[in-house]
Amino acid sequence: MTLTAHHGGMKAIWFGRHLYEPLLYLDQNRVEISPVPLNKGERNLVEDMKSFHDSATTDLFADKELYLLRNLSKGRGIGFFEAGNFHPDFILWLISRGRQFIAFVDLKGIRNIGFNDPKIQFFNTIKDIERRLAEPSVSLSSFIVSNTPSHVMRLLWAVDKSAMEARNILSQEEDKATYVETMRRRITSSYLA
What we know:
Blueprint: E1 2-7, E2 10-15, E3 23-26, H1 40-55, E4 64-70, E5 90-96, E6 99-108, H2 118-133, E7 138-146, H3 150-157, H4 161-166, E8 169-171, H5 179-188
């Protein structure tokens, strides 16, 4: 069941594929919520994921289970020392044909970090972790979902959008209609038809 409820500046999002419900978004911080409410980019990701899941053809998820979990904050959630104590915002699980595809998704304005920052490089680091795990039924991946326009980053990093996408940096606003499908396709591309 998927529902959305609005009250004043607060929005509750029920997405049957998230492990905890509802997720809350606040336009203005008038009340204190624990864990902290979603920010705008996080809210958009959950809504975009929900929309993609709900509108996908029935055969796309026929033999698959999809789960989304908001990671807890530093000190309590899943973090990666190898990437400077990086705590991605979300963990996305896709289970299919006896395989688990686990993707760590972080929403980030990337204007103030470098192209070689450990959080950007985590798309490679996670594959090293996968090799050390040595569990053939588990595939790990990582994505940065950016709200910074690619033309701004082209000026700052001197790289084009395709170079960013090669590092699993996806544009939430520029590619709103396709970034979730791109993520799903990359997560499973070498294993599923």
